[in-house]
Design a protein that fits this description.
- The chain is α/β, with parallel strands linked by helices.
- The protein has one domain: Copper homeostasis (CutC) domain (TIM Barrel, Alpha-Beta Barrel), CATH 3.20.20.
- 40% of the residues lie in helices and 16% in strands.
- It has 8 helices and 8 strands.
- It has an 8-stranded parallel β-sheet.
- β4, α4 and β5 form a beta-alpha-beta unit.
- α1 runs parallel beside α2.
- The protein is globular, with a radius of gyration of 16 Å.
- The N and C termini lie close together (9 Å).
Length: 219
């Protein structure tokens, strides 16, 4: 079974390194240490010019919680439109309501703005109170995959829920584990959950990505 690797990057230089290290897909964002926000147009343009690897762009108006005002949602829709026009392959987004459930109305608005791009629901998913119900909602909304640590601090600690999500999805939506994935634990995460892709920070010089790639190639 082929396991694809998505690398999270915050610059065109990091994207180029990750592509050379074997990333199958890139997630581009800024403010990584705050969970990631939308990169500017210049960074997206430079990244697209510097690599042929499919690029997904984070669409997040600000750091903090995932409840957005009408103005913030409007800005996110404009960011989606700009990213689509530039030629990205997908977008990464998410929104929750006051009870930390999937904000169906907001997500539907963002999804409609993004079509026909591939859509990933980001780690806001790790805050929802009923992950299986949330997964069903995202399937109905046309989301392609969910980035999650299995509602734990790291993917290795969230293995039980990740496995449950894979089983519940039954191939209807991708489960993309992320959070602390490195060469020493990626084999176990893949083997025990049945996921077919993983997400990680590329790291300086894409060293972590190269190491993970080597482990997956040896499976």
């Amino acid at each position: 079974m082929i396991v694809r690797v998505e690398a999270c990057v915050d610059s065109s230089a990091a994207a180029s390194e990750a592509g050379a290290a074997g990333a199958d897909r890139l997630e581009l964002c800024t403010n990584l240490f705050e969970g990631g926000t939308t990169p500017d147009r210049e960074t997206i343009t430079a990244t697209l010019a510097g690599t042929a690897v499919p690029l997904h762009v984070m669409i997040r108006a600000r750091a903090g919680d995932f409840q957005y005002s009408g103005d913030e949602l409007a800005q996110m829709c404009r960011d989606i439109a700009a990213s689509r026009e530039l030629g990205v392959a997908g977008v990464v987004l998410g929104a929750l309501d006051a009870k930390r459930r999937v904000d169906r109305r907001a997500v539907e608005r963002l999804v409609q703005a993004a079509r026909p791009l591939a859509i990933t629901f980001h780690r806001a998913f790790d805050e929802v109170p009923d992950p299986l119900a949330a997964l069903d909602q995202l399937i109905e909304l046309g989301v392609a995959r969910v980035l999650t640590a299995g509602q734990a601090d790291s993917a290795i600690d969230g293995i039980a829920l990740l496995k449950q999500l894979v089983e519940h999805s039954a191939g209807r939506i991708g489960i993309l584990p992320g959070g602390g994935i490195r060469e020493h634990n990626v084999r176990r995460i893949v083997a025990e959950t049945g996921v077919r892709e993983v997400h990680l920070r590329a790291g300086p010089g894409a060293a972590w990505l190269r190491a993970v790639r080597a482990v997956l190639a040896a499976r």
